[in-house]
Amino acid sequence: METETFETTGDGLADATGLAMHDPDTASGLPQLDFSHFGNQIFWLVVTLVVIYLILSRVALPRIGAILAERQGTITNDIAVAEDLKAQALKAEEAYEKALADARAQAQAIVAETRAEIQAELDAALKEADAEIAARTAESESAIADIRAGAIEAVQTVATDTAEALVAAMGSKPDGAAIKAAVENRMKG
């Protein structure tokens, strides 16, 4: 069987792996705050900052700049397209307003034309109705004149008959010609 050998450090402490362990009594504290290591730490700090600067300036910042430039170009193009579309919309609105005004004018012309046609038809119908009313009025006046003449003749006949009957009732002999002349004079006024 093999025996394990332990190496010891100056203070005599060793672990099972053979690595020296630090004695808490002899440790100087945090190594990054040890002034003897400042030169080495400053060197690596400068190297790290230079490497980060080179990576950022050569790789990351150009990509970010390209993205920002592309975004700015897209925004500028979008604004230009929006202005163009706005101008087209204004032209379309003007064309719409003009077409609407033309349509209104045309509608008013159609309304005026239709109104004139309706008025002409109405005037013709009124003339026809007036002519028909005048014809019926003439017929009615003729019929009324015939009825009046018949009524007057009937009144004269009745008046003559009544007068002859009254004269006969009074005991005299009626004279037909005298009674007829008297009724006609009375009818005249």
TrEMBL record:
It is found in: Cell membrane; Endomembrane system. The keyword Ion transport applies. It is a single-pass membrane protein. Keywords: ATP synthesis, Cell membrane, CF(0), Coiled coil, Hydrogen ion transport, Ion transport, Membrane, Transmembrane, Transmembrane helix, Transport. Its main location: membrane. InterPro entries: ATP_synth_b/b'su_bac/chlpt (IPR002146), ATP_synthase_B_chain (IPR050059). GO terms for cellular component: endomembrane system; plasma membrane; proton-transporting ATP synthase complex. GO terms for molecular function: proton-transporting ATP synthase activity, rotational mechanism; proton-transporting ATPase activity, rotational mechanism. Residues 82-113 form a coiled coil. The chain crosses the membrane at residues 42-61. The keyword Ion transport applies. It comes from the Bacteria. Belongs to the ATPase B chain family. Component of the F(0) channel, it forms part of the peripheral stalk, linking F(1) to F(0). The b'-subunit is a diverged and duplicated form of b found in plants and photosynthetic bacteria. NCBIfam families: PRK13454.1. F-type ATPases have 2 components, F(1) - the catalytic core - and F(0) - the membrane proton channel. F(1) has five subunits: alpha(3), beta(3), gamma(1), delta(1), epsilon(1). F(0) has three main subunits: a(1), b(2) and c(10-14). The alpha and beta chains form an alternating ring which encloses part of the gamma chain. F(1) is attached to F(0) by a central stalk formed by the gamma and epsilon chains, while a peripheral stalk is formed by the delta and b chains. This is ATP synthase subunit b. The lineage of its organism: Bacteria, Pseudomonadati, Pseudomonadota, Alphaproteobacteria, Rhodobacterales. The gene is atpF.
